[in-house]
Design a protein that fits this description.
Its EC number is 5.4.2.11. Keywords: Glycolysis, Isomerase. Helices cover 37% and strands 13% of the residues. By secondary structure, the chain is α/β, with parallel strands linked by helices. A 6-stranded mixed β-sheet has the order 3-2-4-1-5-6, with helices on both faces. It has helices spanning 53-64, 83-97, 112-125, 150-156, 158-167, 180-197, 209-220, 224-232, and strands at residues 43-48, 105-108, 130-133, 202-207, 241-246, 251-258.
């Protein structure tokens, strides 16, 4: 699905956020955050990794009513792609090979599932492509809740469920994990460095669903309701493509969660 970026700071009737005017005292008005400044890459494309073995097993656990995933061959960061994920990575490679204006810088999360997906793109692009890893685009760390189904979390950690409901999408931090707001901090750092290092270049990042969601939050200056709606609207698909392009003053969203290449 392609999607164009719409400025949320206007005054239309579709959820616009406007500063309070005369007589607005005491009324809460939501104003978007500042979009990420100075990230003047020509194009920033972000792909979620292909389906991992843990993704596959978690889907099966939900269907079978099993509380958590077991039997993985390694820690979460080192879990490989599933057979389906390998096919999706190959499709990413074919997609990369067919780009009219390919990236010359590829950055991947250090998690194995992201590295394997990125490598398929790098191999397809051929020589001259710079390939780097950056742990700031790793997946969200969810601590004690890792690889648990939602039903299992509600059964085992009812106090955490209550705390999540009270704290909210951006600020809830599970024990041993990080909040989405924590992610935003490291992604702002990543984008700042990217703007310094890759000004004017076409960049491909291969990362995770939470990274795609929170990059939208940071780049577009969204508010909590916006980003929570994005996260809940069907999820970020494995091997999907999201893209922002530089328009002379800012990065604008031109493609979101697209899987036409699969």
């Amino acid at each position: 699905m392609a999607a164009r970026h719409h400025d949320r700071r206007g005054t239309d009737d579709a959820g616009a956020r406007t500063p309070p005017g005369p007589g607005a005292r005491g009324r809460l008005v939501l104003i978007p955050g500042f979009p990420a400044p100075g990230v003047d890459v020509a194009e920033l494309t972000v792909i979620r990794h292909g389906q991992s073995l843990s993704n596959e097993l978690l889907i099966a656990a939900n269907k079978q009513g099993i509380s958590s995933v077991s039997g993985l061959p390694a820690r979460d960061a080192d879990v490989p792609l599933s057979a389906r994920g390998e096919r999706e990575a190959a499709a990413v490679g074919r997609w990369a090979a067919g780009l009219e204006n390919p990236p010359d810088l590829v950055i991947a999360s250090p998690y194995l599932r992201a590295q394997l997906t990125a490598q398929a793109a790098v191999d397809a692009l051929g020589g001259g492509v710079e390939f780097r890893l950056d742990d700031r685009v790793r997946d969200r760390e969810i601590g004690v809740l890792t690889l648990m189904t939602e039903a299992a979390v509600r059964a085992a950690y009812p106090d955490e469920v209550k705390r999540w409901e009270e704290t909210g999408f951006l600020y809830y931090r599970p024990p041993g994990g990080e909040s989405h707001s924590d992610m935003a901090i490291r992604l702002r750092s990543f984008l700042t460095d990217l703007g310094r290092y890759a000004s004017g270049r076409r960049v491909l990042v291969v990362a995770h669903d939470s990274v795609v969601v929170m990059l939208r939050y940071v780049i577009e200056g969204l508010v909590e309701d916006d980003v929570q709606a994005i996260a809940r609207a069907g999820g970020i698909k494995n091997a999907s493509v999201t893209r922002w392009e530089w328009d002379g003053s800012a990065l604008g969203l031109t493609l979101f969660n697209d899987i036409q290449h699969l």
